[in-house]
Amino acid sequence: MVSSTVGTGAAVGAVLVSLLAAPAQATAAAGGDGRGVRPAAAGAPAPDDAGLRAVLRAARAQGAPGAMARVDDNGTVHRLAEGVADRSTGRAIGTGDRFRVGSITKTFSAVVLLQLADEGKLSLDRSVNRYLPGLLPDDRITVRHILSHRSGLYDYTNDMFARTVPGFEAVRTKVFGYRDLVRLSLGKPRTNAPGAAYSYSNTNFVVAGMLIEKLTGQGVGAAYTKRIIAPLGLTGTFYVHPDTGIPGRHANGYLTPDTPGAALVDATRQTASWAQSAGAMISTPHDLDVFLSALARGRLMSAARLAQMTRWTRVNANTSYGLGLRRRDLSCGISVFGHTGTVQGYYAYAFTTKDGRRSLTALANTSNNAKVLTTMYRTLEPAFCGKSAASRALRGATRAAGPAAAPPERHEDIAPAVIRD
């Protein structure tokens, strides 16, 4: 059933925007291993549609042309949308629209490699160089290090997008080979010794794509389709690289220039070759909800491999990272896992509960806008914690609003627009 229909109301007033100007505070963050965190279950608070809509409207007021959220609550579907998918035509954005998912692609890549581990074709604790001889400068870098961002490999996007729009235009139609991107990384010092620390780097999942292609004998797009997209019936999910278009009805993506007040840049058409297996997939809210629910319910790999995927490394007070998977600890004591995604013109969020009974996908069709980034992350609270948690988040945001407001939510999927963890 549908509990809320698509809407395109005008942006809310300044009071609501100020209420949502600072991140919600987690009051029950879990330990790094996740023990003691209450998973969502039957009887958990219902999703707060009004709270979700307030977040979407605030994102519009902060510069996003459109924003949407879809919650699948064990078969009860909540669909909310505000604003436009296409600024030139004024077409309303909707939860059926396709979009670039950015680093949510990393979860697809990790699933394929863990399936290969289930099949005995890969060992997580063997050197990457065992499978790709001579690729990396250190035989100690393992597959597990790559998937958990603990390899120490420098993130080449730090330099590629040091200037947002010029950096994007320089690569918009360019087609990179995987080794081209790895060479960009290896031209810089590593951030840490293998396994010593968590340091998010797109380079890791470029290497993951190379592993997939070596071990399957097919391109990553074919591997995603055979192993995930086709079995789950994800009819709106594609890997079109190096084609530049998004098939069918979709939300255009708008890149915010670094110069305040400059016009948004339509970034929809691009090869996304700078990202590939780290961030080039296209999907829909429905398909991402199905994908993450299936992952949580054990439909995509063995229980032993899923346990490996959800072995967490603490990133900050309320975020941890597994193998191609983020965990977020919410104010109500529930932890959810999934991934965030940033590619030029799009901020995407896809998370599910530990039991897969409730899943959220949210999108704003802009990027390089720290206020929108922070605001959209707040869709998790009303989606998974209900009205009371959303109210607490708003009260906390009210105290933090104004000149002394907290810094923007830390985010890592594309560098260097916002602060790194």
Oligomer description: single chain
Helix content: 25-40%
Count of helical stretches: 14
Largest sheet: 8 strands, antiparallel
Q: Pairing-aware structural class of the strands and helices?
A: alpha+beta
Strand content: 5-15%
Brief write-up:
Helices cover about 35% and strands about 15% of the residues. With about 425 residues, it is an alpha+beta fold.
What do these coordinates show?
- The chain is of the alpha+beta class and about 425 residues long.
- The chain has helices at about 15-20, 50-60, 105-120, 130, 145, 155-160, 165-170, 180-185, 200-215, 220-230, 285-295, 305-310, 370-375, 380-400, and strands spanning about 65-75, 75-85, 100, 255, 265, 280-285, 315, 320, 325-330, 335-345, 345-355, 360-365, 365.
- It has an eight-stranded antiparallel beta sheet, with helices on both faces. Strands 5-4-13 form a three-stranded mixed beta sheet.
- Strand 11 and strand 12 (about 360-365) form a beta hairpin.
- Residues about 1-40, about 395-410 and about 415-420 have low confidence and may be disordered.
Please describe the topology of this protein.
Layout: H1 14-19, H2 49-61, E1 66-73, E2 76-83, E3 99-100, H3 105-118, H4 128-131, H5 143-147, H6 157-160, H7 164-171, H8 178-186, H9 202-216, H10 220-232, E4 254-255, E5 265-266, E6 282-283, H11 285-296, H12 303-309, E7 313-316, E8 319-321, E9 326-329, E10 335-343, E11 346-353, E12 358-364, E13 366-367, H13 370-377, H14 380-400
Parallel strand pairs: 4-13
Antiparallel strand pairs: 1-2, 1-12, 3-6, 4-5, 7-8, 8-9, 9-10, 10-11, 11-12
